[in-house]
Design a protein that fits this description.
This protein is of the alpha+beta class. The protein has two domains: about 35 residues, no CATH class; about 100 residues, Beta Barrel (OB fold (Dihydrolipoamide Acetyltransferase, E2P)). About 25% of the residues lie in helices and about 25% in strands. The strands form three sheets. It has a six-stranded mixed β-sheet with strand order 3-8-9-6-5-4. It has a two-stranded antiparallel ribbon with strand order 1-2. Strands 7-10 form a two-stranded antiparallel ribbon. The chain is elongated, with a radius of gyration of 25 Å.
Length: about 160
């Protein structure tokens, strides 16, 4: 079928290479946008309270991309978090992989982060809570993957009641 417009002839059944390239580029941009859209926010956990030490709980849109070890994780925005009040084995030490795997599983469905400050390495020191209000640090200690770090235990109320 031929269409006539302004002294030019167009073939409606054929796309030019430039038109095909434009459609392909548009499709790729759309697919990338769908793949990188934000995940839904986790539900507000029960029992989470604002810190008496000046920390604030951010909106429940914190997603962990990875956990390097049991007490160091990175958000999808690239923020490095140091889990407050606990010390887990360093990678290469006994128990490190189990602690890391526990933290990865704990944070998989989104978390609430109570940012307390920064450590000497520039990481954000934070209390991390699951969707149902459990503290990652407290659970690491309870499951035997971490010990309470007595130098910083005053930052976490749960350290006063957790058996060590």
């Amino acid at each position: 079928m031929k269409l006539k417009k302004d002294k030019s002839t167009y073939d409606a059944g054929c796309l030019t290479p430039l038109a095909v390239a434009g459609l392909l580029a548009g499709s790729l941009i759309w697919a990338n946008a769908l793949q990188n859209r934000p995940k839904p926010a986790p539900a507000e956990p029960a029992g989470v309270q604002r810190s008496a030490f000046g920390g604030t709980i951010q909106s429940p849109t914190d997603w962990i991309e990875s956990c390097y070890d049991g007490d160091t994780c990175t958000t999808i925005q690239g923020e490095k978090l140091r889990i407050a009040c606990v010390d887990t084995p360093a990678m290469g030490e006994s128990g490190a992989i189990a602690a890391r795997n526990y933290s990865r599983g704990f944070t998989a469905d989104g978390v609430w982060v109570n940012r307390l400050g920064a450590d000497r390495y520039g990481r954000t020191v934070a209390q991390v809570y699951s969707r149902d209000g459990k503290s990652l640090g407290q659970e690491l200690v309870r499951k035997g993957h971490a010990e309470v770090d007595s130098r910083f235990a005053h930052q976490c109320d749960w350290t006063r009641t957790t058996e060590r």
